[in-house]
């Protein structure tokens, strides 16, 4: 409880980690607020069904609060957003200057502090992909402030968990993106870093996973624990193995 987990991908797609955590927390009986900025609800629902979870049913019983970022952006830009009285759109920053993410934080706070939240095991905030906010015009400071307030509310006050996916590219000079990613790395309790293979594509090894447990956050003088595995994504699960020990090699 009270942990901040950062999912990071470089030269590969780390969305399989998002699907894992989404299905994991829903099966565990947690209240989940999912800020989905990258894909549509139907996309996540189809993948979740393969993992044995029904997102539509989870929404209907109040366990899952889903923000479909793609649809909200289009509705807001084209003036088709149906605003609730006293409740601005969570992505209201798109039409404001200077922009801040207060409305998005309020959406998260209200979603996880609802009266029915006590019937679930614990609150969880899941964000996919946080760096999309930068592409939509939010400043790095606004994004980091949003995460800071979410950590205070969800992790410290509600004793819940936060899982955030960020995309980093070593080949493109995007200073704002790297600033956000590096800042989040310093404040994370656990980092799962999915990387593409340096040697290129391989059908039997899809990438490398670096697991960094931030022991230095818990105790001064401790070294972070780093484990490195390679993985292969299958239809319904992911196989992990030590580097160079895939089934194809052995």
UniProtKB/TrEMBL annotation:
It is found in: Cytoplasm; Nucleus. This is Elongator complex protein 6. GO terms for cellular component: cytoplasm; elongator holoenzyme complex; nucleus. Pathway: tRNA modification; 5-methoxycarbonylmethyl-2-thiouridine-tRNA biosynthesis. GO terms for biological process: tRNA wobble uridine modification. Gene3D superfamilies: P-loop containing nucleotide triphosphate hydrolases. Pfam families: ELP6. Belongs to the ELP6 family. InterPro entries: ELP6 (IPR018627), P-loop_NTPase (IPR027417). CDD domains: Elp6. It comes from the Eukaryota.
